[in-house]
Amino acid sequence: MAIGTSGRNYNQSVAGLIRRNDIDEVRARVNIVDIVGDYVTLKGAGVGSLKGLCPFHDERSPSFHVRPQVGRYHCFGCGEDGDVFSFLQKMDHTSFTEAVERMAATIGFELHYEDGGHANADHGNRARILAANQAAAEFFVAQLGAPEAEPGRAFLGERGFDPAAAQRFGVGFAPKSFNALGNHLKSLGYSELELVTAGLLSQGDRGVYDRFRGRLVWPIRDVTGQTLGFGARRLLDDDKGPKYLNTPETPVYHKSSVLYGLDLAKRDISRGRQVVVVEGYTDVMACHLAGVTTAVATCGTSFGVDHIKVVRRVLGDVANTDTRGLGEVVFTFDPDEAGQKAASRAFSEEQRFAAQTFVAVAPDGLDPCDLRLSRGDDAVRRLVQAKKPMFEFMIRRMLGSHNLDTVEGRVAALRAAAPVVAGIRDQSLSVGYSRDLARWLGMDPSEVARAVRSAAERPSDEPRGTPGGSGTPAHDNAESGPSMAHLPADFSTRLERDALMALLQHPEAIGRELAQRAARVAYGNPALAVVRDAIAISMDAYASPDWLDRVIEEVPRPFSMLVKELGVAPIPVKDDHELATYCTGITSTLIDRDLVRLKADLLGQLQRTDGAAEPARYRELQQQLVSVEQERRVLREE
Question: Which of 32, 127, 405, 418 is a good FRET partner for 347, with 20 to 30 A between their CA atoms?
Answer without folding.
Answer: 405
